[in-house]
Every structure is written in structure tokens, then in C-alpha cells.
Amino acid sequence: MKPLILCLAAFLVAAAASGDDDEDPHTAAREAMVQQQIEDRGVHDPAVLAAMRAVPRHRFVPEEHAHRSYDDHPLPIGEHQTISQPYIVAVMTQLLRLDSDDRVLEIGTGSGYQAAVLGEIAAEVYSIEIVPSLGLRAAAVLRDLGYDNVHVRVGDGYAGWPTRAPFDAIIVTAAPPQVPQPLLDQLAPGGRLVVPEGDAIQQLVLYTRQEGPDGPVFDRKPLLGVRFVPMTGEVRRH
């Protein structure tokens, strides 16, 4: 009878796990988000799609907006800031072309959601948030979810994080008039930087560092029109 008991136990465990998935409304919503909002619009990087499926977006928004977590638009997170539209998060992440051993810098932690997506793919993520309440909340959520490879610091992101440079990739999630030079300087050779540049009119821009005979050269490639909250702090004095 022992094999029968073991088979029955395995069946009950599998059934319980299946039932848990069926009862979780966020699983279906997250899958629909990835298929309809992201894959259908051309995002194809398997690591990015897997990360978007894995990260519980509803944990990164205020409770009153949790039921809209997987909708196709940004959401307010307090302090006049937003969590970006899922599609934009996926596009910006794909543009970084991340490898599993990459070190990434994020300027503008916000809710912490983008940092979690990066943390699913890259080895280490360093994220800076200028608004203390947002930075502390994001760090707590990321810690609760087990993202030990994501490091959050409260401060002005203009100068980057020089003690952790160079970075294989840098992502800026608030719009400066133009990309701060210190961020470009902290890119590793071949590194990629994605930033929404501009004030009244913004463009998502991809910078790639190349090595020239007289030093680094930054290839600048505008991609599409976007709308982000403005980057604040030191960047406004330059």
C-alpha cells in the first residue's frame, strides 16, 4: 500500500498547488498583462517577459490602487510620483540588454517595481530615490519580497553612485532636460543607458558607450515619445 499512499499524497499536494494558483486573482491578471500589453506590442526578450511575470506589481502600489495594478497605464504612488505603465517598464528593461552577471544603476526608485524587474535579471541593482518616504517604502517592499540583490539609497541621483561604478547598464526613470554627465561617465565600456530626456517634449533615448581613440564616445539614439515626471534636485541647477 505504500506506493499508493505516496501517489495519493503527491496528487493532493499538486492539487492544492493548482488550487492556490486558481484562487490567486493576480496570477491571471499578471499573465494577461504580459501577453496583451507587452508581448503583443513586440517585447520579445525571454528574461524580460519572465521578470514581468514574476514580480507582484500589486505589492508596489498603494492599497487603494491595488485592484488596478495590472492595468495598461501608470498609477499614482504618492508624493506626486507614479509607477510607470507596464509596457514602458518592459521596453526600457529590454533596451538595457541585461545579462545575469550585470551590475545596474537605477535613478528614481519610485515604487521599487522597476528595481524588482531589474533584480530578476541582473546580478546587482543599485537604486537611488530622492524622496525619502518613497525610497524607504520601496526598500521595505523589496526586502519583504526577498530582493537581496537590490540596494536602495535615499539621495540625489544626479551624481550617480560612484563607489559602485562602473555599471553595465543605467536606467533613469524621471526626465532630466538632458542626461547628467556623471551618469554617462559611470557606464562601463559597451554599457547602455536608457533615459527619458526633455521637459515639455520628452523622448526615450538609448546611449551606448563606445571606446574611441581619444576616449569614450556615447552613441545617442532617440527612440519614442514618452511622458515621465521630471527629474528633480541637482539636475535643475545645471
Protein model, in words:
It is a single chain. The protein has 238 residues and is α/β, with parallel strands linked by helices. It has a single domain, classed as Rossmann fold (3-Layer(aba) Sandwich), CATH 3.40.50. 34% of the residues lie in helices and 26% in strands. The protein has seven helices and nine strands. Strands 5-4-3-6-7-8-9 form a seven-stranded mixed sheet. A two-stranded antiparallel ribbon has the order 1-2. Strand 4, helix 6 (132-144) and strand 5 form a beta-alpha-beta unit. The longest helix is centred in the N-terminal third of the chain and has 22 residues, at 2-23. The radius of gyration is 20 Å and the shape is globular. Mean pLDDT is 91; it is low at 1-22.
CATH topology: Rossmann fold
Strand order of the largest sheet: 5-4-3-6-7-8-9
Give the overall average pLDDT: 91
What is the straight-line distance between the termini? 77 Å
Tell me the name of the CATH homologous superfamily. Answer: Vaccinia Virus protein VP39
Helix content: 25-40%
Secondary structure: elements and pairs:
Elements: H1 2-23, H2 25-38, H3 46-54, E1 75-78, E2 81-83, H4 86-95, E3 103-107, H5 113-121, E4 124-129, H6 132-144, E5 150-154, E6 167-172, H7 181-185, E7 187-197, E8 202-212, E9 215-226
Parallel strand pairs: 3-4, 3-6, 4-5, 6-7
Antiparallel strand pairs: 1-2, 7-8, 8-9
